[in-house]
C-alpha cells in the first residue's frame, strides 16, 4: 500500500488523524491543501479570491494526478481537502489508481459542533452568523458530497473516539 488518501468533510479530522496514522505506519504525511498552497504560492482562500473556484478545481485536479502518479515519494498518508473527491472526476482517479481511500465519516451534528468552535479559521464559513445557519450549511453540503465520500475503500465512523483511537481503528481495517 503506497498511498492512503483520507477523505471527509471539513472538520472530520483528516489533518489531525493523518499525521498520527502516518507515524504509526512509518509513512510520510502530506496535507493536500498545504501542498496546493505551496505549489501556487498563496493560500487557498487567496486562490479562490484572485483566480476563482474553477481555476482552483483545475489546479487541484492537476496536483492530485501528480501525487497519484508520483512513485518517488514512497508510502504516504495524504489528507485531501473536503471537496477534492467531489470535482473533476477526482474520485474516479483515486479509485482506479493503486491507492487506498479512507472516508472519515462524521455526522453533520458533530461536524457543526467542531466547525463552530473554529469557524473563524475557515473562510468558507465566515459569512454564517448563527449555529443554525452553519448546521444547515453542513447538512446540505455533507448530503451532496456523501455520494463521493461513500465510494471510499474504507468508511470509518469518526464520532467519539480520540484521534489516536481512530488512527488505530484505520490500521486495523487496513490490515
Structure keywords:
175 residues; alpha/beta; 8 helices; five-stranded parallel β-sheet; 54% helix; globular; single chain; Rossmann fold
What does it look like?
With 175 residues, the chain is an alpha/beta fold. The chain has one domain (3-106, 149-174): Rossmann fold (3-Layer(aba) Sandwich). It contains eight helices and five strands, in the order βαβαααβαβααβα. The chain has a five-stranded parallel sheet, with helices on both faces. The protein is globular, with a radius of gyration of 16 Å. The mean pLDDT is 91.
Quick recap:
With 175 residues, this protein is an alpha/beta fold. It has a single domain (3-106, 149-174), classed as Rossmann fold, CATH 3.40.50.300.
List the helices and strands and how they pair.
Elements: E1 3-7, H1 14-25, E2 28-31, H2 32-40, H3 44-51, H4 53-69, E3 76-79, H5 90-96, E4 99-105, H6 108-117, H7 131-149, E5 154-157, H8 163-174
Parallel strand pairs: 1-3, 1-4, 2-3, 4-5
Helix pairs in contact: 1-8, 3-4, 6-7
* CATH H-tier superfamily: P-loop containing nucleotide triphosphate hydrolases
What order do the SSEs take from the amino end to the carboxyl end, as H and E?
A: EHEHHHEHEHHEH
Helix count, per DSSP? Answer: 8
Q: How much helicity do the residues have?
A: 40-55%
What fraction strand?
A: 5-15%
Q: What's the level 1 CATH class?
A: Alpha Beta
Averaged pLDDT, please?
A: 91
Which sheet architecture does the biggest sheet show?
5 strands, parallel
Determine the structural class based on helices, strands and strand pairing.
alpha/beta
Q: List unreliable stretches of 5+ residues.
A: none
CATH architecture: 3-Layer(aba) Sandwich
Order of strands side by side in the largest beta sheet? 2-3-1-4-5
* Radius of gyration based on Cα positions: 16 Å
Shape: globular
Amino acid at each position: 500500500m503506497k498511498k492512503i488518501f483520507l477523505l471527509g468533510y471539513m472538520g472530520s479530522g483528516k489533518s489531525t488523524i493523518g499525521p498520527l496514522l502516518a507515524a504509526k505506519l512509518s509513512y510520510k504525511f502530506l496535507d493536500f491543501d498545504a501542498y496546493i498552497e505551496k505549489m501556487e504560492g498563496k493560500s487557498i482562500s487567496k486562490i479562490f479570491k484572485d483566480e476563482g473556484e474553477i481555476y482552483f478545481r483545475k489546479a487541484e485536479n492537476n496536483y492530485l494526478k501528480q501525487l497519484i502518479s508520483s512513485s518517488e515519494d514512497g508510502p504516504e498518508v495524504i489528507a485531501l481537502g473536503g471537496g477534492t473527491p467531489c470535482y473533476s472526476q477526482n474520485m474516479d482517479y483515486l479509485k482506479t489508481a493503486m491507492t487506498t481511500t479512507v472516508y472519515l465519516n462524521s455526522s453533520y451534528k458533530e461536524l457543526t459542533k467542531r466547525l463552530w468552535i473554529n469557524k473563524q479559521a475557515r473562510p468558507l464559513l465566515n459569512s454564517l452568523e448563527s449555529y443554525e445557519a452553519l448546521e444547515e450549511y453542513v447538512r446540505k453540503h455533507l448530503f451532496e458530497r456523501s455520494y463521493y465520500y461513500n465510494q471510499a475503500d474504507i468508511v470509518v465512523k469518526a464520532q467519539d473516539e480520540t484521534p489516536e483511537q481512530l488512527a488505530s481503528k484505520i490500521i486495523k481495517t487496513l490490515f
